[in-house]
Design brief:
The structure holds two protein chains of two kinds. By secondary structure, chain A is α/β, with parallel strands linked by helices. In chain A, 44% of the residues lie in helices and 18% in strands. Chain A contains twelve helices and 14 strands. A two-stranded antiparallel ribbon of chain B has the order 1-2. The chains are: A alpha/beta, B mainly alpha. At the A-B interface, strand 7, helix 7, helix 8 and helix 9 of A face helix 1, helix 8 and helix 10 of B.
Chain lengths: 380, 296
């Protein structure tokens, strides 16, 4: 008898815990973002964007009559934290889907966990390996790294540049960029005559740019994050080395332009169209989405919107769109995302397929430059 | 290699070296009075430049630097009063570990105040792209500012420690604290003073290098490691030696980039440092006699 009583008691308790999860009238969405720590330049705008959008959606009555409950976990760019948060969100919170993480390293670590937990994960990180090989439940919104490299090389072809130097910081981002550039350069008939890695904490790179100058390169590609990406620009100009400087898509924040000051003028880099939303032609399909996001973000937080926040916008809106279409059922929503076509986001126009869980093509990047301390479309 | 490039590498080396040297000088002051290495020295640089950047929003460049330097000096004094002064038996190792703790503390506080964004003071002369030509070499005018201020500081410190009563008192405390006390020197006040002085030097250094290296809450660690290396390389306790050591290391790094991939820059400079220390444990310009008198 006693055994049965205990069993009933346990059963009742389990039922109490589990039932509300089924009966709830909210949709729980988890987010793992690097709000603080070395990648806060990604995570902070992403978290802000999600909060703003969820408030807006809930104020309008939610998705299909259900309010969204957003749970943001700050991983501070640590893969270990991302793993434990992913497990917590899937097993304890039983979230409907996970948005993020912000960095590629974290996403690759939780890819398997989401797959096993049958939970949709829409990453805001760039690395190609997140969606290649394709994992059933894992998607990503930022443009692929290789598109950035290809876009730069295409621009170089137009400018008739043949001999280039590549310099990267010793971070995961820098090394991945270097590998992509070295792999793709021959396809475009471009010769990398010198390829160097420098310390991400370097305080001055004059000796390195002197070496580049000595090799007689016609252009330089730099693939790194702040502050090195500003230091290299300054040092090149200071020693009077005036070849075109190309940066990675990581340069897409007006703060970095301010950090490099006058040395930022003329830097060429690929980026999503958010940074030049106002300058797009009026008939561009992305223009209304970009302008609305930018205005909303800037009036809500009094800071400049960045492409990184845009990745979170795309992730959430794609998810919401799929829920609207398929109802609050994880499997159906997954299928709906996979078959989504022509979704207009901040990063570009998404066309997902079972083989492509990113959905963006090379035209989602635009070549930008810096003019009078502002971003501008590069004249062709 | 053309002559022009050769001199350009030399200029780059001097730029690196002078930045390291200006950091190294700060280490020497506290070492000269207490015999300890203050591992929070890098944080003084960070504080000086970050405070100056914040103040620069409200006032012109030079007043904001002066005010930032004064504030950092008080922070230096406060640190000594709070953490070092009340120690009953301050063993060298214990004090060094305390300074490591302080450096972590200051860094975290700075993170809470300023966040992680990268800032910089404006260039003192010209802007990011201004370059002046000396012979065949092109340089940023800010490098000349750093060189000038570094040399000025070395000169003033030499005079201070060699010829003024206060400076001599401070040196006496390091050489033999007991004897210094017997002569009526308040050794504890001298230690406080040395923290203020090295905070001053750190803050000035932080402000002049900020336009070149940028400022961030964690800029101190990287600069302090290089500064410490240079202080050891030159011979601890001697500002002139720090200047020499800095330029030697800077040139080594610069020319190592010429012959090798720049990824090996730090490895080469540290390897050479090790070799020099095996051959001359007192540093390039230190003498055996003075080292023998010191505890550490």
């Amino acid at each position: 008898m006693r055994g049965i009583k205990v069993f009933l008691l346990v059963f009742a308790m389990v039922a109490l815990i589990v039932v509300p999860a089924f009966a709830s009238d909210t949709i729980k969405i988890g987010a793992i973002l690097s709000v603080t720590g070395p990648a806060s330049f990604l995570g902070a705008p992403e978290a802000n964007t999600l909060k703003m959008l969820v408030d807006e959606i809930n104020a309008k009555g939610g998705v299909g009559g259900k309010k969204i409950e957003l749970i943001i976990k700050d991983s501070s760019a640590s893969p270990e934290k991302a793993i434990s948060f992913a497990k917590q969100l899937i097993e304890e919170e039983r979230v409907f889907a996970i948005i993020g993480p912000s960095t590629s390293g974290e996403t690759l670590k939780i890819k398997g966990i989401c797959e096993k937990g049958r939970t949709i994960c829409i990453s805001c990180a760039a690395a190609e390996r997140i969606v290649n090989p394709v994992a059933k439940y894992v998607f990503k919104t930022p443009q692929k790294d290789s598109f950035a490299a290809r876009k730069i090389f295409m621009q170089m072809q137009k400018m008739g540049i043949k001999k280039i130097g590549v310099v990267v910081g010793n971070t995961g981002f820098g090394k991945a960029g270097k590998a992509q550039l070295e792999k793709l350069a021959p396809e475009y008939g471009i010769d990398i005559v010198i390829s160097e890695v420098y310390d991400k904490k370097a305080t001055d790179l004059t000796a390195l740019v002197t070496k580049l100058k000595a090799k007689g390169v016609e252009a330089v590609i730099n693939w790194s994050i702040v502050p090195a990406q500003s230091i290299i620009a300054k040092n090149m100009r200071q020693i009077g080395f005036n070849v075109p400087l190309f940066q990675s898509h990581g340069f897409g924040n007006i703060k970095y332009v301010k950090a490099a000051g006058a040395a930022a003028e003329g830097i060429i880099f690929p980026a999503g169209r958010l940074l030049v939303a106002e300058k797009l032609p009026d008939n561009h399909p992305q223009k209304p989405v970009l302008i609305k996001y930018k205005r909303d973000y800037e009036s809500c937080y009094h800071g400049e919107a960045s492409t990184f926040g845009g990745h979170a916008y795309d992730a959430l809106m794609i998810l919401v769109e799929a829920i609207k279409k398929a109802g609050p059922d994880k499997e159906k929503v997954r299928d709906a995302i996979e078959n989504m076509k022509g979704f207009i986001g901040t990063g570009g126009i998404f066309n997902f397929s079972p083989e492509d869980h990113n959905g963006l093509d090379i035209d989602s990047f635009e070549m930008l430059t810096v003019k009078n301390g502002r971003f501008a479309l590069l004249e062709r | 290699m053309s002559v022009e490039l050769f001199f350009q590498y030399i200029a780059a080396g001097i730029t690196y070296g002078i930045i390291y040297a200006i950091v190294a000088i700060g280490f020497n002051i506290i070492y000269n009075t207490t015999g300890i290495i203050n591992f929070a020295q890098g944080e003084f640089l960070m504080l000086g430049s970050m405070i100056a950047i914040s103040l620069h929003n409200f006032m012109p460049l030079f007043p904001s630097i002066v005010l930032a330097v004064i504030i950092t000096m008080f922070v230096g004094a406060l640190i000594e009063l709070m953490f070092i002064r009340w120690l009953k038996s301050p063993s060298i190792l214990r004090m060094i570990i305390i300074t490591i703790g302080i450096s972590i503390l200051i860094r975290e506080i700075a993170l809470a105040i300023w966040g992680e964004s990268v800032r910089a003071l404006p260039y003192f002369t010209g802007d990011e792209v201004t370059s002046i030509t000396i012979g065949v070499v092109k340089l940023s005018p800010q490098v000349l500012w750093v060189v000038g201020i570094c040399i000025l500081m070395v000169l003033i410190l030499q005079i201070f420690f060699q010829f003024t009563l206060l400076g001599r008192k401070m040196r006496a405390c390091a050489t033999n604290p007991m004897a210094a006390r017997l002569c009526g020197i308040n050794t504890k006040n001298m230690v406080t003073l040395s923290f203020m002085l090295s905070a001053l030097i750190g803050a000035v250094a932080g402000c002049v290098v900020s336009p070149i290296t940028y400022s961030q809450y964690n800029m101190g660690t990287g600069l302090a490691i290089k500064g410490f290396t240079v202080a050891i390389l030159g011979g601890l306790g001697n500002s002139l030696a720090a200047l020499g050591g800095g330029i030697v290391l800077g040139l080594l790094e610069s020319f190592s980039v010429w012959v090798m991939p720049s990824a090996y820059k730090d490895a080469i400079s540290i390897a050479i440092l090790l070799i020099i220390l095996f051959v001359r444990p007192t540093g390039l310009f230190g003498s055996k006699e003075t080292m023998a008198l010191k505890e550490f």
